[in-house]
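Example S7 (structure tokens).
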């Protein structure tokens, strides 16, 4: 048999040119009690009171969103403040909303979720983002099991390449992935 050349192409995520691509409106609801809003808070056209409207792109990271929230919320700037992110989306089979945890960040500490993008987390345009802010003095990282997530010895941001992140290894909620959108 004649020589057969095999060419393997690396698939890269499409980089978004923020100068050319229009941002979308992301409605963010912040709670400072450390708990996410209940799905019933979003029913019948209602939304929680504490809303931020952020114009952003699908390549925005959770770290970027953390920085934007810290700009308008002085209490969230303290080192050790935890930001827990959840996607709030309509259930297409029933007239209610679903809440799905998508990651967490911490002020002053690098973590694995800092570099996750909205696109990677499959946040759709029109979904809400719910952020529960927990001050550093109201939670114990070791007691709640967060110490491994924020151990900077196990995570080196300089060695992480967001373009090579394998989305097949990212475990998503099957109900979220399989939901059909009317648009």
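Recovered sequence:
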């Amino acid at each position: 048999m004649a020589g057969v050349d095999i060419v393997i192409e690396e698939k890269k995520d499409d980089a978004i040119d923020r100068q050319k691509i229009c941002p979308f409106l992301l409605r963010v609801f912040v709670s400072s009690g450390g708990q996410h809003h209940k799905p019933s808070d979003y029913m019948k056209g209602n939304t929680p009171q504490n809303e931020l409207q952020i114009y952003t792109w699908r390549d925005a990271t959770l770290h970027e969103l953390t920085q934007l929230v810290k700009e308008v919320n002085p209490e969230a700037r303290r080192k050790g403040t935890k930001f827990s992110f959840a996607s709030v989306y309509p259930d297409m089979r029933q007239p209610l909303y679903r809440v799905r945890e998508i990651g967490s960040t911490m002020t002053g500490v690098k973590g694995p979720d800092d570099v996750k993008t909205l696109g990677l987390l499959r946040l759709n345009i029109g979904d809400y983002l719910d952020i529960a802010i927990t001050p550093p003095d109201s939670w114990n990282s070791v007691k709640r099991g967060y110490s491994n997530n924020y151990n900077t010895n196990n995570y080196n941001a300089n060695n992480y390449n967001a373009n090579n992140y394998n989305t097949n290894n990212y475990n998503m909620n099957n109900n979220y992935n399989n939901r059909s959108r009317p648009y």
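Notes on this example. The longest strand covers residues 97-106.
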